[in-house]
Description:
The structure holds 2 protein chains of 2 kinds. Chain A is an all-alpha fold. Chain A has helices at residues 15-35, 38-45, 48-81, 87-94, 102-113, 120-125, 134-160, 163-170, 175-204, 207-212, 223-233, 235-261. Chain A is globular. In chain B, the strands form 2 sheets. In chain B, strands 1, 2, 3, 4, 5 and 11 form a 6-stranded mixed β-sheet that branches. In chain B, strands 8-7-9-6-10 form a 5-stranded mixed β-sheet. The radius of gyration of chain B is 21 Å and the shape is elongated.
Amino acid sequence: xxxxxxxxxxxxxxxxxxxxxxxxxxxxxxxxxxxxxxxxxxxxxxxxxxxxxxxxxxxxxxxxxxxxxxxxxxxxxxxxxxxxxxxxxxxxxxxxxxxxxxxxxxxxxxxxxxxxxxxxxxxxxxxxxxxxxxxxxxxxxxxxxxxxxxxxxxxxxxxxxxxxxxxxxxxxxxxxxxxxxxxxxxxxxxxxxxxxxxxxxxxxxxxxxxxxxxxxxxxxxxxxxxxxxxxxxxxxxxxxxxxxxxxxxxxxxxxxxxxxxx
Amino acid sequence: xxxxxxxxxxxxxxxxxxxxxxxxxxxxxxxxxxxxxxxxxxxxxxxxxxxxxxxxxxxxxxxxxxxxxxxxxxxxxxxxxxxxxxxxxxxxxxxxxxxxxxxxxxxxxxxxxxxxxxxxxxxxxxxxxxxxxxxxxxxxxxxxxxxxxxxxxxxxxxxxxxxxxxxxxxxxxxxxxxxxxxxxxxxxxxxxxxxxxxxxxxxxxxxxxxxxxxxxxxxxxxxxxxxxxxxxxxxxxxxxxxxxxxxxxxxxxxxxxxxxx
Lengths: 262, 261
C-alpha cells in the first residue's frame, strides 16, 4: 500500500541516529558471538540440562502463544470493535504487563494462584496445584506475552476498518460468519505478527517465571533461567546458551517474516 | 499497517527494556559507584555479598562517623557477580565474599585476606509449619514441598554437602537461584520448607520459623574479606577490614546470627 506511493526520500541527518541505534542493538550480539568458545560449543549446548531447558522453553512458549491467541483475539476484538464506559481504562490495565517489571508480574501471580493466594484455596480444593509446575511457567509467560498479541491485533483491526464487515452484514451474514469469513482473513497478518511477538516474549521470559514457578530441570527451568544459573559456574555455557536463544529468536522472526511476504 | 508495525516494534523494545531491568540491576550497580574524591569527600567502595547487606550498612555508618569526610558506598550482590565485576576492572576498595571459592577466584586482585564470619544452614518453614517439619530427615518425606538453592550457587552446594554427609536424600520441588528466592517461596507458603542460612532466618523475622539441625555442622560457610590490590585508598580499605574483623564488627555480625570464624 504505502510502498507503492512515490518515494519522498528521508532527510539525510536521520541516518545518523538510525545507524547509531542499529549499532547499539547489533554490537552486543557481535560481542556474544566473539565470546563463544566454538571448540566446546557442541558439548555445552547438547548437555542434558541445556537440552532439557531448550525443550521446555519451546514447549511452554508454544503453549503460551496458543493461549495468547485463544484469549487475545477476543480481547482485541472487544477493544477494537465495541464502545463501553471505562474502555480506555480497561485497555490500559490489560496492557499493564507490558510496562510492569516481570518480577512484579511474578509476585502478582504468586499472590493470585499461589497456595495462599487469592484463588489458592479454591484451586487446592479442586485438587489443582499450580506452584512449581510447568503450568506455572506457561501462566507466567502468557501473562507477560498476552498484551503483545492484543496490541498488534487491535492495531490491525482498527487499520482494516469495518467497511467490509458492514457490507457482509447487510448481505445477511451473521456475526460469527462475518468474524470467520471477513474479519479474521483481513487481520491474519496482524494476528501472525502478534503471535510471533508473543512467542518471542514467552521465550525470553525470566523474571515472572523465577518468581512464580521456581526453577527445576525439565519442569520449570526454561532456557533463560538455565542461562542465569550457568553464569554462576560456567560462563562459557551461559554464552553458548545465549547464542542458542538468539538463534531461535532470529529463526522464529525470520519464519514469520517469510510467511507474511509469501 | 506501517504505522502499527512501528508501534509494535516500539512496544517490543519497551518490553525488552523492562525485562532487562529486572535482571541486571545487581550487576549494573558496580560501575556507578566509582572510587574517587569529590571535593573534600573521599569515597570508599565496598563490594559485599548480599547476605551482608544489613550488617555492613550499619558498619559503614560507624566507619563514616569515625572517619571525617569519608563516604562508604556499597555494592551488594551475589559473590560470583561481584568477583566477575572485579575481574572486569570494577573500581572497588574492599571485597567481602560469602564463600572462599569466590574469593579464590579474585586471585591476585585482592590482598590481606582474612576470614571474618561463618554461617550455617537452617531449615526455614512457614510460621504454621504445615508439613510438621522437625528435622532434616523430615525434608525427605514424600509430599513435603522442599525448596533448595541450585547446587551451582553457594547455598545449594552447602545443602548438597549436608545431604551427602547425613545420607538424607531430598527431592526438591525447585532449585532456586539464591537464598532470597528460597526464602520468598517459604514466606509465601508456596513451599513447606527450605534450606537457608541461620542469618537469613533471623533477618526474615517472624515470617518464617527456623529449625536448627545437627547435620548442618558438615557445611560451615566461611566469609573472607580482603582489600583490593589496586585500591586508591589502601589505608582506608585496611581500616574498614579492621573494623569488620575487630570487636565492633564482630558484635554487629553476631547480632545478625553470624558465628566467629
